[in-house]
Structure formats: structure tokens, C-alpha cells
Amino acid sequence: SQQGEEDPQALSIQEGENATMNCSYKTSINNLQWYRQNSGRGLVHLILIRSNEREKHSGRLRVTLDTSKKSSSLLITASRAADTASYFCATAGFMNTGFQKLVFGTGTRLLVSP
Amino acid sequence: EAQVTQNPRYLITVTGKKLTVTCSQNMNHEYMSWYRQDPGLGLRQIYYSMNVEVTDKGDVPEGYKVSRKEKRNFPLILESPSPNQTSLYFCASSLWDVYSGNTIYFGEGSWLTVV
């Protein structure tokens, strides 16, 4: 399957620092999405970048996509303790049935200390 | 308010006792799916549904059943639960297909323990 793999698995930083998470995937995609999950809660959509885009911004979030390397990065600037969560990338592509599928990576656990 | 509601949120059950986890969305979404989340394995799709009466298997469908009789509801059925189905389960929905980039909305999760 085209599972995304996030790197690092865990990241610990201080408030005010920037946090960068990377995602690699295996097959061609139409779009890549980033989600956030607070401990034991549901996932919340953060940002989507399409395969013909290279960079996208949303508030303190910056996402890049390099389709030649099959990789994406999520940058959170000026991090806050409230950013502590797990972050997942998810890639959208077709299954052999013709239906679409969103495949999630294993996530990066971010800890932001005050 | 846009919501995906799943119940129960927490359940401890015994091996072999049939159970159903309900899922309901209020956004008139066509696409619904179930995921399970396990440590080190991320989220894996169990089943999905493109519309009423249209369902198909995801990556890990063994031991599960689903139905989609109404657009808003997509229950997950464990006919004979086993301990390896102990997991955190999420229901999700979106307007149409994820390929087009529609946002997926997730429920809050159901913690299921099978002893």
C-alpha cells in the first residue's frame, strides 16, 4: 500500500521554536493532507496540498511537497504548548477498484514544552 | 455544527459477544469509512462506503461487517470479537471522494477492549 511514513517518530521542542515533520510516500498521488490528533481524540484536518502545488501556507503552518522525491514536510512556526499532538500525513490515490482511498502514515508525536 | 458521532466511546466486552459501533454524520456526506488505530501501525482502513448500499473492503476487513442503509449512518459490526480487535476505532466521512481533496471529518473515536 502507499503508506506514508513520517519522520521523526517523536519530536520534543521548546515553545517558540519551529517544528518540522517529514512524510514520505510510495506511489503517485493526487493530493497529500496533514492531520492533527490530540491524545486519544479524533483527527482534525490541517491542510491539503495538491500534486501540482509545491508549497502552501495556513497561519503558522507551512507545507511543502516534492513529488519527484515523493515527500512532504510540515513546518509549524513559533510553536506553542497547545501544538502538542500527533501529526499524520495522508495521501489520496486510486485503488484498483477505481475507488479512492486515503492512506495514513504512522505519525509524528510532537511535544512542545513551556 | 458539522459532526461525526460514534457510540459507544468506551467499551469492554468479552470474546465472541457480538457488538455494534454506531456512526452517524449530519453533513449529508456520501463517503464514509471506518479506521482502526494501533500503536506503531497508524490508521488502517477497515471498510468504506461511497453511498447508500455501496460498501467495500479496506485494508483490514477481516472480522468486521458494515452496512449503509441510510446516508447518515454507517455502523461497524463485530460478529464475534477477538482480543486482536482491541483497538481505537474511528468513523470518518467526507462530501465526496478524497481524491478530489475533500476534507475528511473524524468522529472522536471508540476505545474497544476485547477480553
Euclidean distance between termini CA atoms of chain A: 39 Å
Number of helices, counting only DSSP H or I runs of 4 residues or more of chain B: 0
Shape of chain A: globular
End-to-end gap of chain B: 36 Å
Poorly predicted spans of chain B:
none
**Top CATH class of chain A:** Mainly Beta
Mean pLDDT of chain B: 92
What CATH calls the topology of chain A is Immunoglobulin-like
Tell me about the biggest sheet of chain B? 7 strands, mixed
Q: Give me the CATH superfamily of chain A.
A: Immunoglobulins
What is the N-to-C succession of helices and strands of chain B?
A: EEEEEEEEEEE
Tell me the fraction of residues in β-strands of chain A, as a range. Answer: over 45%
Counting helices, strands and paired strands, the structural category of chain A is mainly beta
In a nutshell, what does this entry contain?
With 114 residues, chain A is mainly β. Helix content of chain A is 0%, strand content 58%. Chain A is globular.
Description:
- The complex is a heterodimer of chains A (114) and B (115).
- Chain A is an all-beta fold.
- Chain A has one domain (5-113): Immunoglobulins (Immunoglobulin-like, Sandwich).
- In chain A, 0% of the residues lie in helices and 58% in strands.
- Chain A contains no helices and eleven strands.
- Chain A has strands at residues 5-7, 10-14, 19-24, 31-37, 43-50, 55-58, 61-66, 71-76, 85-94, 100-104, 108-113.
- In chain A, the strands form two sheets. In chain A, strands 2, 4, 5, 9, 10 and 11 form a six-stranded mixed beta sheet that branches. Chain A has a five-stranded antiparallel beta sheet with strand order 1-3-8-7-6, with no helix packed on it.
- In chain A, a hairpin with a 5-residue loop joins strand 4 (31-37) and strand 5 (43-50).
- Chain A is globular and about 40 Å long.
- Chain B is mainly beta.
- Chain B is 0% helix and 50% strand.
- Chain B is built from no helices and eleven strands.
- Chain B has strands spanning 4-7, 10-13, 19-25, 31-38, 42-51, 54-57, 65-66, 76-78, 87-94, 105-106, 110-114.
- In chain B, strand 4 and strand 5 form a beta hairpin.
- The radius of gyration of chain B is 13 Å and the shape is globular.
- The relative contact order of chain B is 0.32.
- The model of chain B has no long low-confidence stretch (mean pLDDT 92).
- Classes of the chains: A mainly beta (114), B mainly beta (115).
- The A-B interface holds A 1, 3, 30-31, 33, 40-45, 48, 50, 88, 90, 92-94, 97, 99-107 and B 4, 35, 40-45, 48, 50, 56, 58-59, 88, 90, 92, 97-101, 103-109, 111.
